[in-house]
Amino acid sequence: MPKLTFAFCTFNRADRLEKLVAAMRAQTCPIPFEILAINNNSSDSTAEVLAHLAQLPGPPLRWVTEPVQGIVAARNRGIAEALDSDILVYIDDDEIPLPGLIAAAADAILNEGAECVGGRVEMDFSTVPRPAWLEDNLLGFLAAVDHGADAFWIGDASTPIWTANVAYDMRLFRSDPTLRFDKRFDRVGNVVGGGSDAIMFRTLLERRARIRYRPEMIVLHAVEEWRLTRSYFLKLHYRAGLRQGQFRMPDYSRKLLGVPPFLVGQFLRHAFRTAIMFATGRQGRVRQAMNASNALGAIIGYSRRVKNNQSGALA
């Protein structure tokens, strides 16, 4: 009989765990499932709460502590702990799964042949009001996902899915021990940035894995107040550009002061458009400022890579 592991990584959110685990236990699934909690070295009462919840009736809760701080270490620990399962479903500790999530994930993998499957992530503004400036086209940067009401096969990066709501056929990870979340795109604690799940998604696309979107997979994502600021979105895009420039851009032969001139041109164009849009009060100005921040991050990231390469060559 196949087995499913329903997992989440958690850091200092002990007050959310009882509601989260109750919702996870309320799921129905055609195959046996366990709940796996990866405590990422929390300093609050997370361990005590998980120990209590593990004693309650329902699908079993297993929990481990990952002492290496950071979401990448926690997610990779989850993979290691679930290697004897057939399916690993990941959600985040600031979400609530709605009925039918793991049943749809199991169906996609066991019956449709998907190797990776994700669904909808809906924003929950019930406790923190949505700012007036937060336009719909920005919600994706809070992990929102909604690709429509119909299931389909994902063939490119235009319809991404995230670990906020994603399932994997564990044969992917058993057959290739190098296929893991990338440490270079880590996020430690409650800070801005990360992107290791986006890199995993792109890696699976490059490997031509069979990736499925199932709209019945739904989680409610609680939005924390500290994320609902313009500065958060700017920092998020700056760090994304930083890592893109440092780790993923090709090595360009033409450089000015260690940086490809086209990157500088991109930043200047985005910065000029941003200034004009803020001066005129045009809609979309926050999104445009994010483009400028991303372009600046790419410049800084690329220059760091050049310096690191030069240091390595001199060593």
What does it look like?
This protein has 315 residues and is α/β, with parallel strands linked by helices. The protein has two domains: 223 residues, Spore Coat Polysaccharide Biosynthesis Protein SpsA, Chain A (Alpha-Beta Complex); 85 residues. It is built from nine helices and nine strands. Strands 1, 2, 3, 4, 5, 6, 7, 8 and 9 form a nine-stranded mixed sheet that branches. Strand 2, helix 2 and strand 3 form a beta-alpha-beta unit. The mean pLDDT is 91.
Outline of the structure:
With 315 residues, the protein is of the alpha/beta class.
CATH fold-level label of the largest domain = Spore Coat Polysaccharide Biosynthesis Protein SpsA, Chain A
Low-confidence runs of at least 5 consecutive residues: none
Largest sheet: 9 strands, mixed
What is the top-level CATH class of the largest domain?
Alpha Beta
In CATH terms, what is the architecture of the largest domain? Alpha-Beta Complex
Instruction: Name the CATH superfamily classification of the largest domain.
Output: Spore Coat Polysaccharide Biosynthesis Protein SpsA, Chain A
Number of DSSP helices? 9
- The coarse silhouette is globular
Tell me the domain tally: 2
Rounded radius of gyration (Å) = 21 Å
Q: Give the N-terminus to C-terminus distance in angstroms.
A: 55 Å
Give the SSE string: EHEHEHEEHEEEHHEHHH
Strand percentage lies at 15-25%
Structural class: alpha/beta
In total, the number of strands is: 9
Please bin the fraction of helical residues.
Answer: 40-55%
Overall mean pLDDT stands at 91
